Each structure stands twice: as C-alpha cells, then as structure tokens.
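Worked Example 4.2. Consider the chain below.
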Amino acid sequence: IIVEGESGYLVPLESVSRTDFNPAYPEAFQKTFAAKINILLDNEALATQMGKSGRERVLKIFSWESIAKTTYDYYQKVIDGFVKEKA
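Applying the procedure from the previous section yields the following structure tokens:
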C-alpha cells in the first residue's frame, strides 16, 4: 500500500520469529521509526503531500470501482481464452 517516499515511509522490521512479530531488534526499529515520524513532523508540506498521495493511491487501486474493473477484466480474459480454445 505504501510507496516509499511517495505515500509514506517503510520501516524495515525483522521480527523475532514467524509467529512472533515483535521486532528482533527493538531499539533499532524504534530509532528508525522515530526518525521517519520526525521527518514528517518537521515538514508539514511533505506530510500533507504524502497523505494526499496515499489517499489517491488507495482510491485508484483499492476502491470498489477499481476492484470491480480488475475482476471484470480478469473474467473477460478467462472467457476470451475459453472461447479461443473452443474455436
């Protein structure tokens, strides 16, 4: 969902295990996470732009209209392939 530097920041997380999602290195994770938040707190224009970009991305990719179109296009591709096989 997040595009690094465009709609937010990604903070790498190495979890303790496959079933324990707590950070394996909590201090490093907290430091990186805080640094990214501070960038946004120090730059209101950047935070606003990232928020707008994130909203636009969600509406473009994850709206019901977008999901319906993607589903329709997929079904149409399957149908077209089936029709070609029968011809």
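DSSP finds three helices and no strands in the chain. The mean pLDDT is 95. Compare this with Example 4.1 before moving on.
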